[in-house]
Every structure is written in structure tokens, then in C-alpha cells.
Design a protein that fits this description.
The first copy, chain A, is mostly helical. The first copy, chain A, has nine helices and no strands. The N terminus and C terminus of chain A are likely disordered. At the A-B interface, helix 6, helix 7, helix 8 and helix 9 of A face helix 6, helix 7, helix 8 and helix 9 of B. Chain A binds a DNA duplex through helix 3.
Amino acid sequence: MSETSTKPRRNPAETRERLIGATVRLMLRQGYAATSVDEICAEAGVTKGSFFHHFENKESIGRAAVEWWGAFGTALYAEAWEDDELDPLDQLRRFFGIMIGFTEREDQVCTCMVGMMSQELSQTHPAMREECGRQLQLWTANCARMLAAAKARHAPEAGFDPEAVAWYLNSLWQGSMLVGKAEDRPGIIRSNLRLALAWVEGLLQKTDSPNPSQPS
Amino acid sequence: MSETSTKPRRNPAETRERLIGATVRLMLRQGYAATSVDEICAEAGVTKGSFFHHFENKESIGRAAVEWWGAFGTALYAEAWEDDELDPLDQLRRFFGIMIGFTEREDQVCTCMVGMMSQELSQTHPAMREECGRQLQLWTANCARMLAAAKARHAPEAGFDPEAVAWYLNSLWQGSMLVGKAEDRPGIIRSNLRLALAWVEGLLQKTDSPNPSQPS
DNA sequence: TCTGACATACGAACCAGTTGGTATGTTAAA
DNA sequence: TTTAACATACCAACTGGTTCGTATGTCAGA
């Protein structure tokens, strides 16, 4: 009879993923409130009944989409620190390189699901705020780990707090994407990232060597 | 008959302002899409007919609200540079002081209308994106002016570009408010601002004086 | 009497979410 | 191996409520 191997008509895992993918794509562009469940279903090629079978409500798929984005990001960034033999300062340089690479994708606006949902929903959807907060903490923890290691290796006497610097960099990254989008000038993001990397490198310069700021 | 001096039943200017005020309050909390015209009217104590008499549509009052916020902000920041006798570096210190003060208001979430509308609408409402872009440019121009003056006075040889640094600071400020909100930790914003000010002061240190970084 | 400011009423479109049903897959007894 | 009972995955149609926007009316002041 008809083959059953390639395209099983039922595939809950795939349906779920398709719904999440559609949600990410749409909300990344329009935000949460402006994205309707009908629209998500149409984009995913799934009916509304099916939608409410997989997700309790709109907020629930919103949370799943933020989680998905977090995992996607972590996988992307992991390349920076996966080689644990690498000098942590070079890991940080890779980290910045990954972010710059993210701004350079063709025909893709440089924006972040976590940043968008945080901005729009922090004050009205506590569960969403918490999920976004968690994802930002993850980024910060990874960044702080590299900063602490780099500090231990290169400038143990330096006075900066790795976690505070990590939050600073996270804020700069989020704000840069926001401003880059509003100005339609992704170059601003890259310029900001370069300034920040230079600053971090400055923080990590050995304190006993009276090195002037930077070579122009 | 009834007196007409104190409370004229009709006052288009005041009605307009009430509508804009209500819009700012509501959208600052809920964002654009989640704020309905009915809600705005209720908050302002104005009927819907009146609303559509004063504003063509929802987007139009959104733009007006962003403009209002821009003027409000500029008035707030102006205190930093209004004394043009003051050392521009001290003007910058005041500038940061104003931002820190903004985070310290009681029972008020530290957030920005321009940042919220930029994040939510940049990719779908071109007119709104442009208005937000304009407001961000204003902030940046004011900031860059102070930076350029401070550079001319304190470190004319320094290699930084005042405008690039101003965009950097604008991005950091926007991102800090975003992260501070998502983490419900306004302290992060203040920490970021302090780090940024120290960095700016570092940039402005005379290149010939071998001054060590900071007194811890 | 004429105009600009405001009010009332309403409609077409759209929203999130529900319902009752069907197709498909699984399990286990006959 | 067949079959019958059951569970899961999915679907079309629908509901009650809300949305922005409009059409029409009223009223005060110039």
C-alpha cells in the first residue's frame, strides 16, 4: 500500500517544533501581542485545534519560544568556550566574534527574542519575565566565567568584578541590538562591540606594567 | 450663570495632553499593541469620539507619545549642560547623575518609551521607527557634544570618536533599562552606569600623564 | 448661524480559546 | 492473527468578547 516511512501523517514532536519555529519567526518581527495564534498556526501549517493540543495558551508557547531561543543562542556561543585549553581572553575574543558574526547575517535583522519579550512583557507577564530573566542570567554566567578565568590568568590584581562586567556587557549587547534596529544601522552594533572588547582587554592588562591606554 | 474662567468645559489643548499622558503611562507598562484605544480613553477620562477627533488613529497618538517622551527626557537631561561655563567633563558627570537619579525614583519602573516602541515596532511600523530613531539621535547628539568638548579640553590627543562613544552609551543605557526590568534589579543599571562613567573618565585622561586606572 | 469640540452608537473584523468529532496509532485479549 | 477497546494527535467550525474605526448627533462659543 502507501509507504509509511518518510512522511508519517502524525509527528507530534515535529508539529511542536514547527509551531515554536513559527512563533519565534513571527514574534521576533512583530512582538508578542501583535502575533496572533491564528497567524502562528498559518505560518506553521497547523490548525488551531492542534495548537491548543500542544500548548495550553498563547503565553505558554511564548515561554517555549524564549526557551528555544535560549538554547539556540547557547549553542551558538558555546563555540567560544568549548576549547577549554584556549586562553580565556581568546575565548572572550571569540565570544565577541560570534556576536559580530550575528550582526552580519544576510537579510536578517539583528535582534533577540529574549530582549524583545523582556521589553514588552516584563511588567505584565510575570512568568514570561522570569523565563527571560533566566535566559539573561545564563548568558551572564557564561560570560562571567570567561571573565573570571581571564582575570585569574592575566590580571589577578585587577579590581573589576567579573559578574558586574558580564551584566554590563549583556546590557550593552541588548541595547546595541535595540538601537541598531531603530536606526537601521547594524554598524552601530559592531562599533559598540569593538569598543567593549577593547575596554575588556584594557581591564585585563597586567596592573604592574605601566602600559598607556591603547595604541590608538 | 456658571462661571467660565476656571474650568472651561472645552479645552482641546488639555484634552490632547491628557490623552498623550494616558498613552505614555499605559504603553510604558504594556507596550503598544497591548494598549487599546478604549483603555487610553478610560485612563484619560475622554470619550472615543473625542479621541478620534484629536488623533487620526492609534499609531498617530503613539508617535505623539514618543515625541512627548523625547521632550520630557531632553528637559530632564538639559540640566547637565545648561551651565555652559561648567567643565564638559563635569557636565558628563551630571549627565550620568541624572540617569542614576532616574533609576532611583520611588515605585517607578525604570524604563523608556523610546526603547519600548523601538523594540516592539521597528520592523513593522516605519513611521514609528523613524520617530524613535530621531529621538535616539537627539540623545546621542547631546551626549556627543559634551564628549567632544571634554575631549578638546582634557585629552585632545585621545583616539576615540565622540559620536561612536555616544552611540555606545546610548545603547548601554537602553540595554541596562531592559535588563534591569527583566531581572527586576535596578541596581544593575546603576552598576553599569558607574562602570561606563569610569570608562569615559579613563578615555579623557591626558595621554601624557601616566595616571594609574582608578583608586579601586 | 456656522464651526470646531466633543458625545453616542454601532459595525465589521479580529481575537484567544472551546467544542465535538475524526483519523491514526497502540495494546492486549480472543 | 485478528479484533476490539482505548489513547493520542489532529481538525473545522464556532463562541463570546474585544478591537479599531466611523457615522451621526449635540452643543457651546464666535
